Amino acid sequence: MKSTVNLDPIDLRVLELLQQDASLSNQALAQRAHVSPATALRRVRRLVDEGVIERRVALLSADRLGAGLTALVEITLDRQGAEHLDAFEALAVAAPEVQQCWRVAPGPDFVLVLQVPDMPAYQGLVQRLFTQHANVRNVKAFFSVKRAKFDPRIALPGRP
User: What is the CA radius of gyration of the chain?
Assistant: First the structure.
């Protein structure tokens, strides 16, 4: 596990602002963080270099793009040796429909978050990932009927 990074109040403010809107220009970021543009740029570069900021992305509307079926799926494998877990994980993360792949314990071996257009697309993915994979013993799927909250932000120390 990687060690944590020491963050001062300016770093925390910059991170909070970027979590709210990663498209901010450096000038706008500096203004809102109450620092100079050079300081803002230097802070962001350091936070990227230290791996605190992994990447900046746009969050898209699955509904508006025709991928409105979300499934949370528990997967249990027959054999849990490292090579078997690694093989299934590689298969899962390679599928673009898999938004998240978590190895978990206790209980199932994996929990996946899937985003697909509809039930036939889900069934096709099930066939490719779970049915044809000889080591999958059990699949338990939950289908979202309503998304009450989705927020990828991380709660930062000293922030409400």
Answer: 20
Per-residue pLDDT of 100-135, as tens digits, reads: 999 999 999 999 999 999 999 999 999 999 988 779
pLDDT at 81 > cutoff 60 = yes
Please, where are the H alpha helices in the chain?
Answer: 9-20, 26-33, 37-49, 82-94, 119-126
Contact yes or no for 85/109 (Cβ under 8 A)? yes
User: What does the domain layout of the chain look like in residue ranges?
Assistant: 9-49, 69-143
Q: What is the mean pLDDT of residues 48-65?
A: 93
CATH code given to domain 69-143: 3.30.70.920
* The pair of three-digit structure tokens given for residue 9, joined into one six-digit string: 């109040």
Exposed e or buried b per residue across 84-111, where buried means at least 16 C-beta atoms within 10 angstroms of its C-beta? ebeebeebbeeeebbeebeeeeeebbbb
Question: So what's the architecture of 9-49 in CATH?
Answer: Orthogonal Bundle (1.10)
